[in-house]
């Protein structure tokens, strides 16, 4: 009498299931489809020993039993249905020795269904090259089943598998994992309602009902209060299950699985070894960053200057073509310069994403994420937060957009919220002029104080980002720690098409989404600076010509005086005077107030606004600096002294003064709540720090 048994090969995609299947069945196989769906069904047979024949089923690749695709649901459906003709007497979970951690998730789930389960670790021929060592005895003890090292390529382990399959009844079928640790009350009452059922199986029946309706397993779900739980609650429990399973797996592997990269002999492992080295890894990463930022600044300055001057010319040209009037001014000064304010960011965004995409495509980025993850995780960030935080030094807008590949929502949100603290390039002109005004141009041991201050401000930005991340991390408690499974892809040459697509997608999304809001606020600011209530604004020219009647002035001098007088009496000027009492304790007057308010649109307008107020030519920075250096307070002391200067720098370091960033944060978080929180909390921090600084230094 020949004993027939059913064997199912289960595993993640590309672990070698089909290779094992072929090794077992040889030519005795046939390929069909699962009834009604297009998923391929491979079956074959194999003589295990004289008395036993196995029917082997090669199941579609699946990552877990929390099915999310048609392929995966085929597997779940089979394993939940004891009446299925193919229901396995023994399950063989095929795994890849290099990705054992990820593979074991599925293994633990299948083992918990109380089906005899064998673990095959395939591709064992790779172990010496990768420096992998496995303590089989420990692993078998921890996983409570037989573990077989196999290489279908070198044809080892097949006979051993056959022997284990013959004796499948000896395999231990107790579950590895106790679902009550996910949620005690929920699972205890579930078990009480169905005392004779495997708890994990019950749980699968309930959750699979959530994921897809194909299964008609309403019995359990209908007859109990368990289905009344909301879907999102069940999803949460499912996530928690995955996390708990990974925690157990990590513990198991810590004892039984070691990778010694130093011993690895293949090129990829050697390169990995260097790139995630705890010292060299960082050195290489910062060298790469340095070159990228150098390139971004160098390369984008040319198109940015071009865009700047083109829009200025376009604005000038429009003024000449259209009849003078408010409408022309709106177009020339409001709309066109607003559009210019959008387009000018494009080169930086495009270059940054080109580099990021190249680093990702080559496989290098996964190594950086791995390298950084441990450190950043302490602060509620993820290894993947590195890219946004660094990109933030160019501009917060692409940086916020770069958070999209952080899967964990909490980590992504924290990253978005703290990114604006990093010193973006818009702060640079502000810092430059203030530093040159209040920091002495001296050297100590060859180190220039001004350069040191600038570097200090960059450090301060990162420090503040990390600090606020850890505070936010404390506030936003979630019960779900994220677990870490990065797969290290193979190194490869980047595909030009993928790089181009990323650049296009990011740029396009910036222009269409953030662009609208930037444009709207630019027009609003133009309006507030171009109009004012009362006679002073309307009669600016007469008033100035009367005031300076005795002096001879050039035409530009006169026009500058008028412009400055107008600005003082415009809506924004009045607003500046209104906030003056509020910012006096920080050492600022109403003119700085105007600059601060218009800086909420974009920081870089600080210098330009002050230039208009002090009525000097806008593009001669040297003159503005001298002019600012002469400005006096009412008591006759210098306005821009060390106390005010440092206080202002710190204000700009911390304040959320960028409407474009707020716009992109609104887009990425899909709510006004987070940008509002950002705006208020950052501005309050800026105010307090600036206040304390001024009061101490004055
Ligand atoms: P499936 O997707 O799980 O069915 O996996 P396949 O059997 O199609 O194999 C996926 C890849 O792994 C193929 O490129 C195989 O050549 C390779 N592979 C399978 N077994 C081994 C092995 O023992 N050693 C090595 N180095 N590669 C293997
Ligand atoms: Mg296959």
Secondary structure: elements and pairs:
Blueprint: E1 3-11, H1 17-25, E2 29-33, E3 40-49, E4 52-58, H2 70-80, E5 90-96, H3 100-111, E6 117-122, H4 127-130, E7 132-134, H5 136-143, E8 147-149, H6 158-166, H7 184-193, H8 199-211, H9 218-223, H10 231-256, E9 257-259, H11 267-275, H12 280-321, H13 326-343, H14 346-362, H15 364-377, H16 386-391, H17 396-401, H18 409-418, H19 427-438, E10 443-444, E11 447-448, H20 449-475, H21 496-530, H22 534-538, H23 540-547, H24 555-569, H25 571-583, H26 590-599, H27 605-613, H28 621-630, H29 642-654, H30 659-669, H31 673-697
Parallel strand pairs: 1-4, 1-5, 5-6, 6-8
Antiparallel strand pairs: 2-3, 3-4, 7-9, 10-11
Helix pairs in contact: 3-10, 5-10, 12-13, 12-14, 13-21, 14-21, 18-20, 19-29, 20-29, 21-30, 23-24, 24-25, 25-26, 26-27, 29-31, 30-31
Magnesium ion binds at residues 17-18.
